[in-house]
């Protein structure tokens, strides 16, 4: 980023970026707008996911259990296996 | 939901969905895979957002302040104005 | 809330609360200090919980599994039973 | 941690800890019960904090602004000052 005076009308044409108070305005604006756009897309995706769970519920599925299933699928099968064995062991130890 | 075998090619046309243990398997699989795909896209977006903030930091911007700015831009200007006035009032009341 | 001047020593005894800019200062201060104290206690509790999990880990327990166990214990046994049955069913339906 | 009889009166005194399936049962139970107790206390504190904010709202305060104030009070004054200066600068740069 080149740096230079930014008093109105004084910027030479080769100056690639306007600054206000030492702030590279276009760069800052670009950063903010890109973040806002991505956050908006992320919100839309969260909405879509919510819709699918609502669809699952209407179709008679148990949404909490589907969430457990998705969480299991993120783990390695060996990790799932080991944790289930341990959970079983701990439950029996506690008489649950 | 009709019940029946779903071996490749053997489903009679009127049989809309295979079930295992009373579960509409294709429907369940579709729900889970769509959620997983959307969650994956959401994770990718979060990574992109993180990258932009890293870029902002490298460019010399204060990332916390950019976050505050983005949060302000989500509110109505009148709401921002009112909260800033109140915050100022409360701070002066407390001698902060 | 009564309104009135609060210049040092000038408050008549019947004035229940000092105000600055229309703000009931003592009330505001009390609210903020109580919240801060409770938040501090809450942070301390979170630290204690973390310490216990560290102790559990040192003692050879699997902390993730202990968390699962604690989460199970929060639910009604009938709910746990039903969710486990469904999870099993869904997993078999998906061939997991 | 030596602990006394486990099976009704039948544990020999040299048995330091009852185990079920290799699990130190009393230790596990102690860990879980302590975590549950602390989590319960933490939930109670969260409830108390919520009550204070409800009280603040009834007393005519703006709860969001009180939260901002509490968040400001957690930071060093110099940090608050610097962030406010930067926020102001960024806003002016963007014409906000």
Automatic annotation (TrEMBL), chains A, B, C, D:
**Membrane-spanning ranges:** none
> What are the UniProt keywords, alphabetically?
Coiled coil
Keyword Transit peptide present in the record's keywords: the answer is: no
What would be one Pfam family of this protein?
GapR_DNA-bd
Tell whether Transcription regulation is among the UniProt keywords.
no
Domain GapR-like DNA-binding as annotated: residue spans? 25-95
HAMAP family xrefs: UPF0335 (MF_00797)
Per its UniProt record, what NCBIfam families does this chain match?
PRK13694.1
Query: Family assignment?
Result: Belongs to the UPF0335 family.
- Name of this chain's protein: UPF0335 protein HEQ75_04875
Native organism: Falsiroseomonas selenitidurans
Q: What is the lineage of its organism?
A: Bacteria, Pseudomonadati, Pseudomonadota, Alphaproteobacteria, Acetobacterales
């Amino acid at each position: 980023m080149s740096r230079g005076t930014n008093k109105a009308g004084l910027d030479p044409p080769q100056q690639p970026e306007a600054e206000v108070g030492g702030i590279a305005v276009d760069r800052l604006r670009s950063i903010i707008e890109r973040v806002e756009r991505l956050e908006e897309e992320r919100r839309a995706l969260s909405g879509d996911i919510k819709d699918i769970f609502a669809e699952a519920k209407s179709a008679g599925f148990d949404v909490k259990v589907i969430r457990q299933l998705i969480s299991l699928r993120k783990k390695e099968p060996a990790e799932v296996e080991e944790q289930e064995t341990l959970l079983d062991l701990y439950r029996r130890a506690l008489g649950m």
